[in-house]
């Protein structure tokens, strides 16, 4: 991998370069072995970094950034920091042993300035409670996706709703920049809908689904009831934010 980067020098000025080993490169700068400019302004800190598969792309980007005004470089750094903060909330970096059933923002992704929020709808306690059965998960998936895609308040922004492979919860992906508390009412409505659902499970036919007979509505209701009572009806801060 190749990187175009900017360093913040001790005098506040910026240094732009490219490298194929960003960690080593920053260390070398701080040892005074990176460049004359940075050697006279130690210590330096990584302020900005962009990845490229080829070195020529990284070099091209370097010369482009070098031609930018200081204010334009600072703008790049602000956007970069915002994205970095978002990456830190990725779900794989959390300790699942401390994770309670809850409603969390798993991550936010930005595509051309459009923010997409992925929610972690965690129903059972990972590695402590038994996981949900596939038939319950499957029924919640079908009814839940149908409900969300027909809900006039959110249907325009629903990207995806589906189960986690570990069978402890579901992911909901919405177009927009949300916090977990913003969707508590929506998720309450969703699980109340499943709780009151008494019809054929939508899409559970051989033509529409890959394993249509593997659904269990009464177990879907059991988990909906559990999630409403344990999480949604009296949701606490620690059930809205990932454990540190
Ligand atoms: Zn299915």
The biggest beta sheet is recorded as: 4 strands, antiparallel
Order of helices and strands: EEHHEHHEEHEEHH
Q: Span from first to last CA?
A: 30 Å
> Shape, please?
elongated
Give the oligomeric state.
Answer: single chain
Low-pLDDT parts are: none
Range of strand content = 15-25%
The strands making up the biggest β-sheet line up spatially as 4-5-7-6
Radius of gyration in whole Å, from Cα? 24 Å
The helix tally amounts to 7
Task: List ligands, each type once.
Answer: zinc ion
Overall helicity: 25-40%
The mean pLDDT is: 93
Task: Give the structural class.
Answer: alpha+beta
Number of strands: 7
Description of the molecule:
The protein is an alpha+beta fold and 244 residues long. 36% of the residues lie in helices and 22% in strands. It contains seven helices and seven strands. It has helices at 22-30, 36-39, 55-66, 70-87, 134-150, 184-196, 217-230; strands spanning 2-8, 14-19, 45-52, 102-111, 114-122, 158-163, 169-175. The protein has a four-stranded antiparallel sheet with strand order 4-5-7-6. Strands 2-1-3 form a three-stranded antiparallel sheet, with helices on both faces. Helix 5 crosses helix 7. The longest helix has 18 residues, at 70-87. The mean pLDDT is 93. Zinc ion binds next to helix 5.
Outline of the structure:
With 244 residues, this protein is an alpha+beta fold. The chain has helices spanning 22-30, 36-39, 55-66, 70-87, 134-150, 184-196, 217-230, and strands at residues 2-8, 14-19, 45-52, 102-111, 114-122, 158-163, 169-175.
């Amino acid at each position: 991998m190749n990187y175009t980067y900017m360093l913040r020098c001790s005098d506040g000025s910026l240094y732009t370069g490219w490298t194929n080993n960003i960690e080593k490169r920053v260390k070398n700068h701080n040892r005074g072995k990176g460049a004359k400019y940075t050697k006279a302004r130690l210590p330096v800190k990584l302020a900005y970094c962009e990845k490229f598969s080829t070195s020529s792309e990284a070099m091209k980007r370097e010369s482009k950034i070098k031609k930018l005004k200081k204010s334009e470089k600072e703008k790049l750094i602000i956007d970069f920091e915002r994205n970095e903060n978002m990456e830190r909330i990725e779900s794989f970096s959390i300790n699942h042993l401390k994770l309670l059933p809850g409603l969390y923002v798993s991550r936010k992704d930005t595509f051309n300035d459009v923010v997409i929020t992925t929610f972690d709808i965690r129903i059972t306690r990972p590695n402590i409670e038994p996981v949900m059965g596939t038939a319950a998960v499957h029924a919640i998936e079908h009814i839940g996706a149908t409900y969300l895609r027909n809900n006039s308040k959110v249907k325009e922004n629903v990207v995806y709703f589906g189960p986690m492979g570990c069978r402890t919860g579901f992911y909901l992906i919405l177009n927009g920049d949300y916090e977990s508390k913003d969707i508590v009412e929506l998720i309450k409505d969703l699980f109340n809908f499943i709780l009151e659902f008494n019809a054929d499970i939508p899409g559970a036919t051989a033509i529409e689904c890959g394993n249509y007979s593997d659904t269990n509505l009464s177990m879907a209701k059991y988990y909906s009831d559990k999630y409403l009572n344990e999480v949604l009806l009296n949701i606490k801060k620690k059930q809205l934010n990932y454990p540190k």
